[in-house]
Amino acid sequence: MTALRTAGIVYVASLGVLVAYNVRWKYLWSALVGRQPETLPVTKVDGQEGSNSNPVPVILLHGMWHDASYYGRLQQLLSLNGYTSYAVSLLPGKRLLPGGSQKELLTDLEHTLKQEVCGRYILLGHSQGGLLTQSALQNSKEIRENAVAAVLLGTYPLGLTPPVGKLLKEPRNMYTDLGYAYICGFGKLVNVRYAKHMFLMPTTDEKEPAMGKYIEGLLKAPSDGLITMSHFPATPKPVQTPALVLGASDDIIYPPHLLKDEFDARFPNATHVVAEGQAHCFVDPGWEKTMAEPLLEWLDKHANLQEESFSTVIQVEDDDDDAVG
User: How far apart are alpha carbons 254 and 248 in whole angstroms?
Assistant: First the structure.
């Protein structure tokens, strides 16, 4: 037996073991017989009424190893600024494949928005949630028509093959560490050190109580780290929806300076903002100033514009009806 053949057998056997480990077999039957759309859990926080209250709600989609609670602090800020928000849980750990397929996630999201949200809305997705946001605008006519704007927070251009060569040349990256090999094999974060390396600024104190609790939740999260692979085969077309591409200056997963041109090709109407002093998850000290302030400023501008535009359309239709009558 040649060395090459031996290596091939070992490789295939290793893949078999990884598949057996990562697949949630208890969901196999529902996948085989035809899974029905599921209403996803939603955490709703109403916007406070006042002069700055806004009728356009914000739909929040989280990334891998997270759940809807990730948006707790942002939901409070949105509420103070008059926005009702819906933080959607993508059911991590409760699908046949780690994280689920794009089609499965989108089917559930579309079903949930029909059940929970009346009227138009703004989509905001972080990381995996940002990829789902892009997929929704590409593949769901209903969501595309109802989404007045989109925010792509610390995410990746849908369908882009990872520029690994450029990423490896970055001063800090996630690839040259055994922690990345662990993610590739098991879809989970290996330890506190690598979780901080991936998601936080080097200067952020991971031992601070709130931050320690946050990282503990990441380490206990289901093995959803393999989901990203399902996004690469997509062939997106330009979307005219106004978009805010909000990146983090120290994001080692999706460095914004490497992805700007690709986002512009997909979203010709995109605005780009880079939050200084923030890593991938935007939870480092100062996030309220560098991430939340430009986000709220952009939301106010686009939500108000869309409200005026929508009112004009309604008025024109009413006038047409009167003329016919």
Answer: 8
Cα–Cα distance, 226 to 128 (Å, whole number): 11
**What DSSP state is assigned to residue 46?**
P
Whether residue 175 contacts residue 168, with contact meaning beta carbons closer than 8 Å, is answered with yes
| 127 phi-psi bin (left φ>0, alpha ψ -120 to 50, beta other) | left
Closest by CA position to 256, among listed 234, 269, 271:
271
Interatomic CA distance for residues 36 and 259, integer angstroms:
36
Beta bridge partners of 248: 275
Longest dimension (CA), the chain: 86
Which residue, 63, 190, 41, is CA-closest to 131? 63
- pTM of the full structure: 0.83
Walk across the sheet containing 121-126 and list its strands: 42-45, 83-88, 54-61, 121-126, 147-153, 243-248, 270-275
pLDDT band at 315 (very low <50, low <70, confident <90, very high): very low
Contact 114, 86 (CB under 8 A): no
How far is it, in rounded angstroms, from Cα 252 to Cα 304? Answer: 34
> How crowded is residue 276: how many other Cβ atoms within 10 Å of its Cβ?
11
Which helix or strand (DSSP H or E) is residue 57 part of? strand 54-61
* DSSP per-residue codes, 141-163: HHHHHHEEEEEEES---TTPPP-
Digit-coded pLDDT (tens) for 167-218: 999 989 988 888 888 887 777 899 999 999 999 999 999 999 999 999 999 9
pLDDT score, position 309: 45
Residue 43 phi, psi dihedral angles, 5° rounding? -105, 110
- Write the single-letter amino acid at 78: L
What is the distance between the alpha carbons of residues 58 and 122, in angstroms, rounded to a whole number? 5
